[in-house]
Amino acid sequence: ILLLGTGRQVQHVDPELRRFIRSTGMKLEAIDSRNAASTFNILNEEGRIVAAALLPYGVSS
Q1: Is 18 helix (H, G, I), strand (E, B) or coil?
Q2: CATH number at residue 49
Q3: What InterPro entries does this protein map onto (predicted)?
Q4: Fewer Cβ within 10 Å of end Cβ, the chain: N or C?
């Protein structure tokens, strides 16, 4: 799973990017960065295969 932290608020992810990520066999979850970091830590602790790309929490658009 790829967690995309989109800053302070959840942002729209381009459908073409979603299709590309899906074509690689990964799942994409776009959520605010604070929750993305927390979710990453939980999934990583569980031994799941997870990656995260996080924008700073102060970013709002």
Answers
A1: helix
A2: 3.40.1230.10
A3: MTH938-like_sf, NDUFAF3/AAMDC
A4: C
